[in-house]
Amino acid sequence: MSPRPIAVLLAVVLAVFGLATPAGAAPVQTLTWTAGNSTTEYTSAPSAARPGETTIVFENSEATGNTTGMSHTLTFDTSTPGYNHDVSLNILANPFDPANGRHEAVVTLTPGRYRYFCTIPGHTAMVGEFVVSDGGGDTTPPSVTAAVTGDRDPSGSYLGSATVTLTATDTGSGVASVEYQLDGGTWTPYSAPVVVSAAGAHMLHYRATDVAGNVSPEGMAHFTVVERPGDTTPPTVTASITGTQDASGNYVDVATARLTATDTGSGVASVEYQLDGGTWTPYSAPVVVSTAGAHMLHYRATDVAGNVSPEGMAHFTVVRSDTTAPVVSASLSGTQDADGHYVGKAVVTVTASDTGSGVASVEYRVDSGQWTPYAAPVAVSAPGAHTVTYRATDVAGNVSPEGTVSFTVVAGGDTTAPAVSLQVGGKQDGSWHYVGQATVTLAAVDAESGVDSAEYKLDSGVWTRYTAPVVVASLGTHTVRARATDVAGNVSPEAAGTFTVVAAPPPPDACPVSDTRETVVIGGVDSQVENIDTGNGCTINDVIAENAEYASHDQFVKHVKAVTQELASRGVLSTADRNRIITAAIESDIGGPPAAAGKRGHADL
Prior knowledge:
This is Copper-binding protein. By secondary structure, the chain is mainly β. The protein is about 5% helix and about 40% strand. A hairpin with a 5-residue loop joins strand 28 (about 360-365) and strand 29 (about 370-375).
């Protein structure tokens, strides 16, 4: 059975100004941020809020889409000009921490703008802001609409599932929250389109609240979901086990399992397997089993219609051909005195060989210490008598007898510690802060026995062996310390330095006067595609440029195809959205009258 990854308990660092809540009083609102597998954006985040006592919820868990065990922080900016700096909040969350990735804090918000970001190195693109407003006399509730989409049958029922998308706007204080209620259930915060797949008639109520506290009238969307007709037959899946077998039918050293699935209806959607009672795992390549012993492989397949095959089983046994342990030896090197003692240090080199299945690992321990994987010659510099014990294991699992080598280390003549220095480099702003990242470089010298190692410690982290310049991308003020050790064991005084990393300024807005219509509209034809920012301040409507001059309608359509192809290649547009925009361009009259309706149906999208 595959072992479950060991969850590393992560500390939750909370430093919040104004946490006190008057007795009996409740926070005026709850603001929720969520994170998942992305390192460039939060899964969901608020855009507006009301002033006063507020409950902050930050969840980074499997429930919010984090399937990799990745850590994220929710950190409020307390230094960038133009934002409120009266709340200091820094929450570190991980799906496997003691709170399962969900943390809360109570803060006091004041009118203005707040900026938030993730401090994990490599996650600095996860940044955003929200506005706190007292309403400013706004008494008009927001507007909220619902759009139901999905495949439909001739009676208008949705096949398999229906997706409800809610859109809210408020021209006064701004939208604070949107909620929905499905089939009389509880009111739920809306953060993404709602997919309803249960067969039957459904009623979805929805409402929105603005920052001033005005609540919209409840809207209603009524629709019916029916099961997709057609494929009700599960797929067929088989397994074949291959490898070299002995006279008893056991597989020698390794067995390979291959799964094959077919479905004559909707087609195979996925194949899974479970080895020796472990977790179900998607099958993408033959399963190689080399662990000696009896094994049971379960397998199943699912087709596009959702039909699941009966579980299949394959039972087999793997045995080892190699029963001979590897051979391992050790040698000593170093400068010796007249008594044969090693001056300053002794170096132990371990060598292992195996003519059968091959060496899998070599381990050693110094005196009564812990067994340690051997990767390079071991230098022992502590004065005194020592014994190094060593052993090797081959691929078949055979372990060699333990070997030992004993020796004595005496102090050498070098009593002078090495010198160490550090340098911080990178692009700096006018305040000498490093923009985006800083690079820390260490240098150590020793004129006698020579430098053995250099180490650094960043902020409150652990001492780490220095092998290459260290890049620090986490925003904020940092302290770095450095030290070096020479071959004789002398340790230098620590060198220290402090520097600050700030976020890189945003790129200039390429379209300061932008077309901000909600959807992409071309010559009055609404494509129903959201008119989003393409990444440089220009919306999709801006780059389509319907008001520019074109020699003909065909030239305009070619222009739209070119710019949408570029947006699709950058991931700004999906293929489906690109096709909708091109269709709207074809049906428009930009550049001249469009082609005949019969010809438009054959346009190359």
